[in-house]
Amino acid sequence: MHQPTGVKAPRKAALASWIGSAVEYYDFFIYGTAAALIFPKIFFSAADPQAATIASFATFGVAYIARPFGAVILGHIGDKFGRKKVLTFTLLLMGFSTFIIGCLPTYDHVGILAPILLVIARLLQGISAAGEQAGANSMTLEHAPPDRRAFFTSFTLSGTQAGLILATLVFIPIAKLPEADLLSWAWRIPFFLSLVVVIVGFWVRRTLPETPVFIEEAKKHEASKLPFIVLFKNNWTDVLRIVFAALISVVSTIFSVFTLSYAVNTMHIDRSTMLTVLVLANIVALGAIPAWAILADRIGRKPVFIFGALGCAVLIWPYIWAISQGNLTLIFVLGILLSGVVYSASNGVWPALYGEMFDTRVRLSGMAIGTQIGFALGGFAPTISAALLGTGPNGWVPVAAFTTATAVIAAISAATASETYRTPMEDLGKK
Fold first, then answer.
1. What are the pLDDT digits (tens) for 145-176?
2. Which of 157, 185, 254, 349 is most buried, most CB within 10 Å of its CB?
3. What one-character-per-residue DSSP string does 253-315 give?
4. What is the spatial distance between Cα 305 and Cα 299, in angstroms, rounded to a whole number?
5. Lowest-pLDDT range, 27-31, 109-113, 125-129, 208-212?
6. Rounded distance, CA 111 to CA 123, Å?
7. Rounded CA gap, 276 and 163, in Å?
8. Which of 143-157, 235-249, 367-381 has the weakest average pLDDT?
9. Of the candidates 153, 134, 33, the residue with the CA atom closest to the CA atom of residue 372
10. How far apart are CA 27 and CA 247, in angstroms?
11. Which residues, including other chains, have CB under 8 Å from residue 234's CB and lie 6 or more apart?
């Protein structure tokens, strides 16, 4: 089996994945921030603020309903026709749907039609996100040198963190504006800016070559006619394993969406303070993710992923407690430790861990379908947590328990996988 030669193609693939993921998840995460801070007040009735918050979080989660369906469709396209076609399509679809959100009328203008239109645009975002990470991960994994596959695939997740940083940085000055300005026009600015970042991402990806292993499969006419059928015939246990391991994403959405809302709306901590915590944690993650991936190339994917999952299961408790106490020092320290350092261990190695479970014919489908079903619970975690949140000083405890349970399940699922960091590319996914 042909392996990438030189360094130009692997580095270009990693750069394209990094920038593309940053663009995609800038769009995806500005929605999460707006769902926590703004949308309950402008897209839903003001009669019941708690119900509006839950409904707003539900629109954040609805994208995750679309993601498994998008994963089947885009996985089929990527495994049959190539990774590059999927990556171009997802980028353009995300940019279009995000820009449309910035154009939507509010509840005061069109009533119930406003949240309906919001949900439709969010569904389009979900379809796009379904193919983005799996496509980018497959592209970088198949271009990467044999002994550095975790490192190169980690750039996709570093790009995701960069997108979150960019989204949060855009919102920090906007959040400082008077409430009237924020809710009338300023909230639209981050969504309109998506056009700029999409143009940048498209420019970078336009010359990216198809992966050597996919080209070789196509030349041998071994690309699957129906990747979905082949996948579930040969790899259904791996797909199921990824579904449960992907529950680690609950930690991310609880940290970036639920605790933001809880801190600002329930504990009345300043918006800008909590957004700064998100930015700092993700700046740290930019360095931590490739560092954990380098370690995974030396000692294996499983121990690094499991450490991250179990560490998050523990650290979520003191972090939410610190928010409940309004202790800003602990909020910053524990937030950076939880999301920036420990979560990055799982987040940085799952592209290699999951991608190496499959052969080239079904890799994109397997990663896309498995992760997007698992991510669906992550997407609805803020909604579930808003419903679980009790009253009084210990009202946050059920949310922490829910987050811990999902992280432990993810660790157990990863523990059942085969270790593949020393397996040659041509032997990956062989049963």
1. 889 999 999 998 888 888 888 888 888 888 88
2. 349
3. HIIIIIHHHIIIIIS---HHHHHHHHHHHHHHHHHHHHHHHHHHHHH-HHHHHHHHHHHHHHH
4. 11
5. 208-212
6. 20
7. 15
8. 367-381
9. 134
10. 22
11. 362, 429, 431
The least confident of 111-115, 184-188, 307-311, 391-395 is 391-395
Question: Which helix H or strand E contains 143, and what residues bound it?
Answer: helix 113-143
Distance in angstroms (rounded) separating the CA atoms of residues 251 and 385: 12
User: pLDDT band for position 225 (50/70/90)?
Assistant: low
What are the angstrom distances between the C-alpha of 268 and each of 262, 263, 277?
8, 6, 15
Token couple for 131: 């193919």
d(CA 58, CA 384): 9
Residue 5 CB partners (closer than 8 Å, separation 6+)? none
Structural domains present in the chain: 8-427 (1.20.1250.20)
CA-wise closest residue to 8 among 296, 209, 218: 209
The answer to whether the CB of 47 falls within 8 A of the CB of 184 is: no
Round to the nearest angstrom and report the end-to-end CA distance of the chain.
Answer: 17
pLDDT digits (tens, 9 = 90+) for 98-133: 899 999 999 989 989 999 999 999 999 888 888 887
Q: Which two tokens stand for residue 321?
A: 């407690």
Residue 205 · residue 91 · CB < 8 Å: yes
Helices 363-388 & 227-234 angle (0-180, nearest 10):
80
164 exposure class (CB count in 10 Å sphere: 0-12, 13-18, 19+)? buried
Question: What single-letter DSSP state applies at residue 68?
Answer: H
Q: Distance between CA atoms of 388 and 378, rounded to whole angstroms?
A: 15
Residues near 192 by beta carbon (within 8 Å), at least 6 away in sequence: 99, 102
d(CA 237, CA 260): 36
- What pLDDT does residue 29 have? 78
Distance between CA 29 and CA 37 in Å, rounded? 12
Complete DSSP assignment for 331-395: HHHHHIIIIIIIHHHHHHHHHHHHHTTS-TTTHHHHHHHHHHHHHHHHHHHHHHHHHH--SSTTT
Whether pLDDT at 30 is above 90: no
